[in-house]
């Protein structure tokens, strides 16, 4: 479904991505893990074309989307939930969800999908008229994910969905990621909580200083001594 080849991004003199390559098959959960500054978020931003690439290509569902503007990438079915949620704080929950569907014209489908996300996150339905900036951190993450789902993605890019959340909410968010995937959405997950990420992923890629240094089935990476020492708290 997604093929990233030799993706490079440079910020001035800093080479944030040094030609990384990976693929995501339809129906999978794939995770990118690594420490701060490894290039995880830059990878998602490069795929979505919200940062300028200096090399490489991104092919989605057989079409090269490397030069497409971000709104056309969303319309093609590839949607990103950015790090830090970036909800529209001054709009209500319902208005945020409506903004998520801005590329769509199928009003009955939009209404059905809004009920679908309210089914996944009942708290958002209870707060549908509440101004989004007054929600808790966990509720804002739920809203950010729901807003992305309103665009009807085939591939969902999740950037640090557990960041800043209490452990009980982290468990809830990861359960929802599984549910979304089971319902048919392919997921590319960037996450610092490597244990949680590898626990739900089919495969993983380890990034260090803008390069893929290791990859493989998630279960194998969890048993890898170097990965355990660096990312899973092992010895």
Short description:
The protein has 235 residues and is an alpha/beta fold. It is built from ten helices and ten strands. The chain folds into two domains: 155 residues, 3-Layer(aba) Sandwich (Rossmann fold), CATH 3.40.50.300; 65 residues, no CATH class.
Give your account of this protein's structure:
There is one protein chain. By secondary structure, the chain is an alpha/beta fold. It has two domains: 2-77 and 153-231, P-loop containing nucleotide triphosphate hydrolases (Rossmann fold), CATH 3.40.50; 87-151, no CATH class. It is built from ten helices and ten strands. The chain has helices at residues 40-48, 70-75, 93-100, 107-120, 122-126, 137-149, 167-182, 194-200, 218-223, 225-231, and strands at residues 2-11, 14-24, 29-33, 55-60, 63-64, 78-81, 155-159, 186-190, 203-208, 211-217. The strands form two sheets. Strands 6-7-8-3-9-10 form a six-stranded mixed β-sheet, with helices on both faces. A four-stranded antiparallel β-sheet has the order 2-1-4-5, covered by helices on one side. Helix 3 packs parallel to helix 6. The longest helix has 16 residues, at 167-182. The mean pLDDT is 94.
């Amino acid at each position: 479904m997604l093929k990233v080849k030799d993706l490079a991004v440079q910020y001035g003199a800093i080479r944030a991505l040094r030609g990384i390559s990976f693929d995501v098959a339809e129906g999978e959960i794939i995770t990118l893990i690594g420490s701060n500054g490894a290039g995880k978020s830059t990878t998602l931003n490069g795929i979505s074309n919200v940062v300028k690439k200096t090399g490489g290509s991104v092919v989605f569902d057989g079409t090269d989307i490397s030069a497409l503007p971000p709104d056309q990438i969303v319309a093609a079915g590839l949607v990103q939930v950015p790090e830090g949620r970036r909800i529209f704080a001054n709009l209500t929950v319902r208005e945020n969800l409506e903004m998520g569907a801005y590329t769509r014209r199928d009003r009955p489908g939009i209404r059905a999908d809004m009920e679908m996300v309210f089914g996944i996150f009942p708290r958002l339905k209870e707060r549908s008229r509440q101004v989004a900036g007054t929600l808790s951190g966990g509720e804002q993450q739920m809203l950010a994910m729901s807003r992305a789902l309103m665009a009807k993605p085939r591939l969902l890019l999740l950037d640090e969905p557990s960041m800043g959340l209490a452990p009980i909410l982290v468990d809830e968010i990861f359960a929802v990621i599984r549910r979304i995937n089971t319902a048919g959405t392919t997921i590319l997950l960037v996450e610092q909580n490597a244990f949680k990420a590898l626990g739900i992923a089919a495969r993983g890629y380890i990034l260090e200083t803008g390069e893929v240094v290791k990859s493989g089935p998630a279960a194998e990476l969890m048993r890898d001594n170097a990965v355990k020492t660096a990312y899973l708290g092992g010895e």
